[in-house]
Amino acid sequence: MTKDNHDSSPNVVTNTKGILGRFEKYLAIWVVLCMSLGLLLSKFIPSIGETINSWHIGGISIPIAICLFLMMYPALLNLQLEKIKKLRTNPKPILLTLLSNWIIAPLVAYALGKLFLQSNDQLFVSLILLGSSPCTAMVLVWGKLAQGNQEQNVINTSINTLTLILFYAPLIAFLTGLEDIPIDRILLLISVVIFIGVPLILGIITKKLIIRYKTKDWFDNVYRPFVGKIAVIALLMTLIILFSLNGDVLINNFDLLVLVSAPLLIGFALVVGYNIMITRKAKLAYPEAITSVIIGSSSHFEIAIATAVSIYGVGSIAALGTTMGLFWEVPIMLSLVYLGKYLHKKGFWQQQ
């Protein structure tokens, strides 16, 4: 695994300016604006939410399903199986990240849910969904901004994509089972198939076809950035729909958003702190350390939102709980980028 933290290879990721377009650069602002717009629509034009809610098949909202699929598909285009072969050259940072993603973060989420949210099953589940879903998309952006090891980033996100399919549903079922929280395990499995399996297969097929009939360079620098922008738009549309359908619930139960925010913020602090200290203890150099910290501390809020909507419905408290994960994660990850650079300047991690 190369330790060049300035890798500009299009096979890994395009340059920061190319990735971080206007939408992505100000994502935290767009998130707040779309949440506010949804609330305003629910208050002053409630018929819009009612109309959207009427478009469903078997209880599944068609607009939300389309938006969630469009959110997931670009993320799963990041799978690069050929990169995983390089894991053996420097496995330590990858293994530390997997430890954080699949053991530390889920256990922290469970413990904080037990401490803060035992009186609200849906918020408890939303916390578990977020804590048990390692990110496969936005970490590529944060890693590039932090000047981390992007080859390691791609290897980690590729492994996370595969492990999500294998471990996500069983881990959710196990953690909710510890508290005897009723959850439809069939819908949980279906959500994994629809929102991870299908987009993954479609991503593999389209990637092969595009590379065959165009070029890999065109796929990396034209197609993937284009569908990435569609994913951001789909994310923002999902927020508008969710908040337009749940405006009254939010306004009348604002305390629930405050309630779920407390364990979310404490969880971020604990997991980020753990990853910063464990990467220092492991004597990682900055590019590998900051990449491990970012991936190990982030969550796949897209699949968490999709699962909450599939199990509990678009108008559920669980869906809003997972949305708050997105609300807090974006500014926290941006702050982590700057914190990492500051610690690097102070010589916190090993020098290359």
Care to describe what's here?
- With 352 residues, this protein is mainly alpha-helical.
- The protein has a single domain, classed as Na+/H+ antiporter like fold (Up-down Bundle).
- It is 78% helix and 1% strand.
- The chain has 17 helices and 2 strands.
- It has a two-stranded antiparallel ribbon with strand order 1-2.
In brief:
The protein has a two-stranded antiparallel ribbon with strand order 1-2. It is globular, with a radius of gyration of 19 Å. The chain has 17 helices and 2 strands.
Name the shape in a single word: globular
- Biggest beta sheet summary: 2 strands, antiparallel
What is the CATH architecture assignment?
Answer: Up-down Bundle
Helix content: over 70%
* Number of strand elements: 2
For the largest beta sheet, what order do the strands appear in spatially?
1-2
End-to-end gap: 14 Å
Q: Average pLDDT across residues?
A: 83
Total tally of structural domains: 1
The class by helix and strand makeup works out as: mainly alpha
In CATH, the topology is named: Na+/H+ antiporter like fold
SSE string, helix = H, strand = E? HHHHEEHHHHHHHHHHHHH
Q: pLDDT under 50 segments (min length 5)?
A: 2-19
**How big is the Rg?**
19 Å
